[in-house]
Design a protein that fits this description.
The chain is α+β, with helices and mostly antiparallel strands. It is built from 12 helices and 9 strands. 40% of the residues lie in helices and 19% in strands. Helix 2 packs antiparallel against helix 4 and helix 6 crosses helix 11. The structure holds 3,4-dihydroxyphenylalanine.
Length: 339
């Protein structure tokens, strides 16, 4: 074999072996085989004196070129192995560097408050049910004993769609839907969105959230209502909270009351938030009106029940000391991230 051929064969073999390596260790073995002091390339140099005189210069140059080529190939292969192998790469990375920050989402304060309210009542045995945001005029008004000439039926107070359909103005129609499907005894809470064409300001929005409550059985009295709302106030606003009932009128309950909780900012002493009254109104409630029972086919002589409805935004504002309802809807992360 001519000396040129010999070099060519070593080159081809070496490149094949380099290409076949998959780790830096394997690559090191190949490097030692060819380029160490006793390696194949050194051996070629040692053979130089035995080469024919006229071939010596080109053989010498050829070995040097081969050595350089193999060094290049080894470098390329080690770069490739490093970039493909995560663990080897890790050695080239500063693992003490802080990891990139990942923002973890939080629940919206309204979702959170609504969930807290429902959790309190769930623990008392209430089931959580929902109803549609588009309602019939009948469920939203008639069935709830709201007469045709009642001002809340006015187009200024309600978003009408068409053919007696509207955006529900409260969660109370879910009372009707539930009682049409289920006979007593039952106790439910109903979280959801409601809509009223109110001009937006610090305390009004055309959409807000309510939680409705309804408990019906054969011997439900006002005492049961008081128990449920006392439990709710102490769980939601703290065990020192007091609750008071003021007589009021709602078409769907009789008797009806507006319910106040002692101001959690000043503990009832009187401050700006409670307008020096020491009390904050949080919900409406009462005993289910017999006409509502009649509308759903429940015998009012046999069954009785209580109902209540509260505004979630208002409760969240009191709980967290928020003074503008619009903050809930602006999607400003500086606000939302605080919850
Ligand atoms: N639906 C009433 C409203 O939106 C709130 C309400 C008051 C609900 C008394 C009730 C209730 O169930 O008994 O203003």
């Amino acid at each position: 074999m001519g000396s040129e051929d010999r070099l060519k064969r070593v080159e081809e073999e070496a490149i094949r072996e380099i290409d076949a390596t998959t780790s830096l260790d394997e690559l090191e073995t190949v490097k030692i085989k060819y380029l160490s002091r006793k390696g194949i390339v050194s051996q070629l140099f040692k053979d130089l004196p035995n080469i024919q005189e006229d071939e010596k210069p080109s053989f010498g140059k050829g070995i040097n070129r081969l050595k350089e080529l193999l060094n290049q190939e080894l470098k390329q292969r080690s770069d490739k192995i490093l970039s493909e192998s995560g663990s080897e790469l890790a050695e080239a990375v500063d693992i003490t560097m802080p990891a990139p920050r990942r923002d973890i989402g939080v629940l919206h304060p309204i979702t959170k408050t609504m969930k807290e309210i429902c959790d309190v009542f769930s623990h008392m045995g209430f089931a959580v049910v929902e109803g549609p945001e588009i309602e019939t005029e009948y469920n939203n008004f008639e069935a709830l004993n709201i007469p045709v000439d009642h001002p809340s039926r006015d187009t200024f107070d309600t978003f009408y769609i068409k053919d007696k359909w509207l955006l529900r103005s409260h969660t109370s129609p879910v009372q009707i839907r539930y009682m049409q499907e289920h006979g007593p005894p039952f106790s439910i809470v109903v979280p959801g969105k409601v809509f009223r064409p109110d001009a937006v300001d610090a305390s009004h929005s055309f959409m807000f959230h309510q939680v409705e409550g309804l408990m019906v059985s054969d011997n439900i009295t006002f005492a049961n209502l008081k128990w449920a709302l006392f439990e709710f106030a102490s769980a939601c606003f703290g065990p020192a909270s007091k609750v008071r009932f003021r007589p009021h009128f709602f078409p769907f309950t009789e008797p009806s009351a507006e319910v106040d909780v002692s101001c959690m900012i000043c503990q009832g002493r009187g401050c700006r938030v409670c307008s020096q009254k020491g009390w904050l109104e949080i919900l409406g409630a009462g005993m289910v009106d017999p006409n509502v029972f009649k509308a759903v086919g429940i015998d009012p002589d046999k069954y009785s029940g209580f109902a209540f409805g509260m505004g979630v935004e208002r409760i969240a504002m009191l709980k967290y000391g928020i003074d503008d309802i619009r903050l809930f809807y602006e999607n400003d992360l500086r606000f939302l991230n605080q919850f």
